[in-house]
Design goal:
Two copies of one chain form a homodimer. By secondary structure, chain A is α+β, with helices and mostly antiparallel strands. Chain A has helices at residues 2-18, 29-36, 85-95, 110-119, 131-137, 141-162, 171-184, 247-265, 273-286, and strands spanning 23-26, 37-38, 44-47, 52-56, 68-69, 74-77, 100-103, 124-127, 189-190, 195-198, 219-224, 226-228, 231-232, 235-240, 298-300, 307-311, 324-327, 330-333, 337-340, 343-346, 356-357. Chain A folds into two domains: 2-135, Creatinase/prolidase N-terminal domain (Creatine Amidinohydrolase, Chain A, domain 1), CATH 3.40.350.10; 138-357, Creatine Amidinohydrolase (Alpha-Beta Complex), CATH 3.90.230. Chains A, B: It holds the Pfam family Creatinase_N.
Chain lengths: 368, 368
């Protein structure tokens, strides 16, 4: 892995040098992990003119058994308790002869930024912007393989849940059960808070599980994901409880399914993100559900569950090959419930078979 | 509750006016909740010269069934997708005639702070510092009652786990089981990531559960807490697995128990935080474990699990009555394991019976 990290840091360094900064300070946790391996939350990475190094709040001893920093990086530790690694890193940048330092202004707080300026008053502070986030958009096959394993784990957890008795159990219990199963199958943990929504709650994006119990005739929508080696995927499915779905349930399900398929089929390298959004959205708009739709119909996934690119009506930018994204349109009708179908796919050229579906649980409307 | 929020906002307003700002923008989620009730994460609160109001990223509709904002506050919603509530709030402050706005510089990022300045260029931006955090330190009886219920829930979850068979189960499974039980007993969720540490992992502060299985002869240390109506407590206990603890285990346990008791007994109104730390720490120092100790032996709890005050050797400040804190010394010996005992207590005057212990699970060394 060390070489992979080195290549990534070189790309960032080129980007900073082009912007006139000889040094960069990376503080956003997912960005530090991308460039330097797994480290505790408050660790920062300095790309210095002479040497790259990590600055930690505490020694990387056995308190952090999950830490796997790139071993070529020297690790500095903030002395005492409560010091800011970013301020120490700024001092170390100055000691290496840097005269300017590009920082992540979208992550550092005003107070930390000021402390950093005080720690190295001669350093000119610049903004590295979202340069690391942009590097992270296109994934290598190693990263995609982590997402693929995470998706398999989520499929397994969901599949097992479907074999159990659901009527009478609460949303909260089902969500906890799913999270336990994710860990059983080897996930680091859930990729995000598992959402289980029944009856009138079904189809709500980001619904937080309540004590409502599953009833006969309910829609049940579930959204979960596994984190595996730091990589996070998502799968969402909607089911009906009981022997036969009602007509309105079948109609609504078919509609969302059609919209989601249209979104999936539009995932080709070079497609505009807003066109992917439109492909899914116009199906639902056309059926009169414009008001019931979420602002986003899909987004990138990786070390964070919600990354660039975003599929919205106003999105700029195009999709590249090897970008993993979700396609997750849904409709929620207040008081009645709704449908949500969410897959994680990797954008691939048609010559390679088109979009690679990572979450393979069936999207037929199952009656459970 | 509306009156309680109004009183809290009045106290903050007095504090801002004394600092020369006619308006304040509160963005840190726990601070917004303290002053305005339960709202989605990215909601901000404006204390304006004419009117206090909430600014949300999305409408507070049935997507947020857990939202319970103070109903006297008008709610503004950022139009479109992805706009920053803080920037809109700055504009609304200017529209109310404010010429300066105190913001939480320890929470706002540099980029958001700049966007806020652009949204209201005539507004002078000041720093409200940790004024709200300081207001939050002393709790009212309603808040303490939420912590007390949370502690009861955590005691119940822990008690049930102790009745089950532990040998052969992994740290991860035990942690998930505890979290499920917390929810069973009415918690909003875990107060923080439940820590279960066995054998050589035992006694590590903040240990993240691994796939290690419980073995005969292990120390087992567990740290968990319930969130109840937003309030978060902590309990930590260490047990031995098997019929009889080894001599070194009994000795180490007795030592940490003695240190923890010394910490608890020093919790009186007016005590210096560093003296509470020293009371616990010197017992362990004296036995030769100075190197094995964490930087902090206790901290405040409330809407966040780690609040002011902090018990460290360099801490400034004194304890007041009605401040809930943890007392959680521990020793971890690399390769062998260790002991951690953690209680949540409320500082009370001696006339009221002294410190009130919220987490009542026994601290005898149990062999399970």
């Amino acid at each position: 892995m060390s070489e992979v990290y080195a290549v990534r840091r070189t790309r960032l360094r080129e980007c900073c040098n082009a912007g006139g900064s000889a040094a960069a300070l990376v503080s956003r946790p997912a960005n530090v992990r991308y460039l330097a391996g797994a480290v505790p939350e408050d660790t920062v990475l300095l790309l210095g003119p002479a040497e790259d190094l990590l600055v930690c709040a505490a020694p990387l001893d056995d308190r952090f058994p999950q830490a796997r920093p790139d071993e070529v990086l020297r690790v500095h530790v903030v002395p005492g308790d409560g010091g800011d690694p970013a301020a120490l890193a700024a001092g170390l940048a100055a000691a290496q002869g840097a005269d300017s330092l590009a920082v992540e202004e979208h992550h550092l707080t005003v107070a930390r930024h000021r402390a950093l300026g005080s720690a190295a008053p001669r350093l000119r502070l610049a903004d590295v912007g979202t340069a690391v986030e942009q590097l992270r958009v296109v994934k290598d096959e190693e990263e995609i393989s982590c997402l693929r394993i995470g998706a398999e784990i989520a499929d397994q957890a969901l599949g097992e849940l479907l074999e159990s008795i659901l009527v009478g159990r609460t949303e909260r219990h089902l969500a906890l059960e799913l999270e336990r199963r994710l860990v059983d199958h080897g996930a680091d943990g859930p990729a995000f808070a598992t959402s289980v929504a029944t009856g009138p709650n079904s189809g709500r994006p980001g619904h937080r599980p309540t004590d409502r119990r599953v009833e006969e005739g309910d829609f049940l929508s579930v959204c979960l994901g596994a984190a595996y080696r730091g990589y996070r995927c998502a799968i969402g499915r909607t089911f009906v409880i009981g022997t036969a779905p009602a007509d309105w349930q079948i109609e609504l399900y078919d509609l969302v399914f059609t919209a989601q398929r249209a979104g999936r089929e539009s995932l080709v390298p070079g497609a505009a993100c807003r066109d992917v959004d439109r492909a899914a959205r116009q199906v639902l708009d056309g059926a009169g559900y414009a008001e019931a739709l979420p602002a986003v119909t899909g987004h990138g996934v990786g070390l964070e569950i919600d990354e660039d690119p975003r599929m919205t009506p106003a999105a700029m930018g195009k999709l590249d090959a090897c970008v993993p994204v979700t396609v997750e349109p849904g409709v929620h009708l207040p008081g009645r419930g709704g449908v949500r179908i969410d897959d994680t796919l990797v954008v691939r050229p048609e010559a390679d078979g088109g979009p690679e579906l990572l979450t393979i649980t069936t999207k037929e409307l199952l009656a459970l």
